[in-house]
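User: Continuing from earlier, I have the next pair ready.

Assistant: Great, send them over.

User: Here they are, in order.

Assistant: Folding the first of the pair now:
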Amino acid sequence: MARKSRKANRRHPLATVVLIAIGLVVTGGGYALLSSTTTATADTNASSQETIDEGKKLFAANCATCHGMSLEGTDDGPSLIGVGAAAVNFQVGTGRMPMAMQGPQAMQKPPQFTDEQTAAMAAYVASISPGPAIPDEKYLQADGDATNGGELFRINCAMCHNVAGAGGALTEGKFAPELKGVLPTHIFEAMLTGPQNMPVFNDDNLTPEDKRDIITYLKYIENNPSPGGFELGSLGPVAEGLFVWIFGLGAVIALMVWLTAKSN
């Protein structure tokens, strides 16, 4: 009975080999995982540095004349220290920068740079000093609360941009641009950075969720035609009153002339 028990407790001859093999696999797998993670991090850092270096070259060639080589600003352009990547992406991405000519405000035009070049310059400016970052994609989907967005827009934006986002005139030759067809990224960045005469709506004024709701409202009215008929440019009572004066009173005068001529 004792001999049988001793045989049952005896280790199999291949057990040591199996344990060594398992140990080698676990050690090798862990080392490979650590190496790949380290390599990926190094590649990301290298790529980011390459992007910043490319942005620095583009900035020096196209922007430094007005904004200074160190972003300190000159007599022809403001300092860019602290504006962040969001301001660069908005100004360059909408074609407002570089400016074609000096004027009351920078005019929107076809962008001069590709998305990759714009992102490189934004990364370079952001690397010099911290500032508002390009918004997260989850706030740009126009899937928020359009009702809340409409209320926030009427309170904070409609006095300049019109309740339907049709734009409007300001003082000294400046104007609030039309918001139809504007990318959600640029709408968010405009609220975040306050370009031209626009005030800054930081996260204490309007949370990222509030900004998403405003984008949702603007895209809703853009994609849904007016149920009341011809919009007359969505410019409000001025355009509607002018229409009544020209066509309404014109029709009344024409009718009176016709009746007078017929009676004679």
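And the other member of the pair:
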Amino acid sequence: MSFTIAPERPQDAALITPLLDRTFGFDRTRKTVYRLRENLDPLPELCFSAIDDDGSFLASIRYWPIEIAGTPAILLGPLAVEPALQGRGIGKALVRHSLEAAQAAGHALCVVVGDPSYYRSFGFIPASAQGLCLAGPVEPERFQVTELVVGALAGVHGVIARGKAGSQAPAAAKPARRRRVRRSVA
């Protein structure tokens, strides 16, 4: 299977919510991380889709502005892959590509609430152990953080809060590039 990672297309936006419903269920919006996203737009320079060679939408990843005791950061998620296509490397390719784009855009810290065994390979570590906390229920082992800039966590601790609407990357973002990915289907 081959696919292309591209900036989220206008037509993808209408496909994302149904994909999230199929992937995570309808009760997903009750989770604490959704409070951080309410009434905010995702960061457009960090919204990517995986597109099949025929133009079909396969997967999505988005990021949102957050703050950690006043320090700007980003929240990864949701990451969603069509359920029938999970386990084929699409999600990992999206995470890798988007974290590289976030780093290139000048973001220093990234938070995720997700499966530790999945995100550990991308450098995520337990956030609570770093002095970070979420205002709301969260499984501690799923609450994670990574530095996109070495040393960015030094002296940063406290409650994670919503970012400001219209937040942009701290540096002039480079235009997002497309990446073609080939995966063999086993």
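Worth noting for the second one:
The chain has four helices and ten strands. The chain has a mean pLDDT of 89.
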